[in-house]
Write a structure and sequence with these properties.
Layout: H1 12-23, E1 27-31, H2 43-56, E2 61-65, H3 73-81, E3 86-88, H4 98-101, H5 107-120, E4 126-132, H6 138-150, E5 153-160, H7 177-190, E6 194-197
Parallel strand pairs: 1-2, 2-3, 3-4, 4-5, 5-6
């Protein structure tokens, strides 16, 4: 249910770092819910978690899957200064479906996030993700590929949208595996370095394989 989010737990970063050590993980994906209620949009949670992980094990590869932080330049600079290995932010779908599927989000703001990051760090690998089966047209999907490459994304995940419940946005189409492969090849030709594309792919699925 909707409600007022709890305050940030200051002990969470250390608990996450200890968990990573205990599990012996080599590549981790750190993500969060959107926290636009906080003055820094929640970036300190990412920064403190990265620092805690590095303190306990500086060999872990850290990927962060971030909300858009309202495309706040200060927040994105803080994130960059904590030196994650990969920054991921999912556009999720094509711009024409945002009003129905991603209410409150902005496709252009997501692209701006990538632009800001690249303006301060040309070397950091950027990653994004798309869901298919929401009613998008193929030409729209291919335009998203072009848009993401233009703002510096080199990694992409493409998977099938599955409605979490009957009250959620319905699945409009189940995409065939061979179509996912066509999309993968098109994304590579658009300029991505590495693409995972199949029905059950999600943004963090086999994240360590992106190279």
């Amino acid at each position: 249910k909707r409600g007022v989010p709890l305050a940030i737990d200051p002990n969470e970063p250390l608990r996450i770092a200890e968990c990573i050590v205990e599990l012996g993980l080599k590549h981790v994906v750190i993500t969060s819910v959107t926290r636009d209620d906080l003055p820094d949009y929640g970036v300190s949670g990412f920064v403190n978690t990265i620092k805690a992980i590095r303190t306990l094990n500086d060999k872990v590869k850290i990927e962060v899957l971030i909300p858009d932080f309202n495309a706040d330049k200060k927040a994105l600079i803080e994130l960059l200064e904590s030196k994650p290995d990969i920054i991921a932010h999912n556009v999720e779908t094509v711009p024409s479906l945002y009003k129905e599927v991603r209410k409150g989000a902005s496709y252009n703001r997501s692209l701006e996030v990538f632009k800001i990051i690249k303006s301060f760090n040309l070397e950091i690998p950027l990653k994004s993700g798309l869901m298919l089966g929401l009613g998008e047209r193929r030409e729209e999907v291919y335009q998203v590929f072009e848009d993401l490459v233009e703002v510096g994304c080199i990694y992409l995940s493409i998977g099938q949208y599955l409605a979490p419940s009957k009250s959620h946005y319905p699945v409009k189409e189940y995409i065939r595996p061979e179509v996912f492969e066509e999309h993968r090849l098109q994304a590579l030709s658009a300029g991505f370095s590495f693409v995972k594309s199949s029905p059950y792919v999600r943004s963090s699925y086999l994240a360590h394989e992106y190279k």
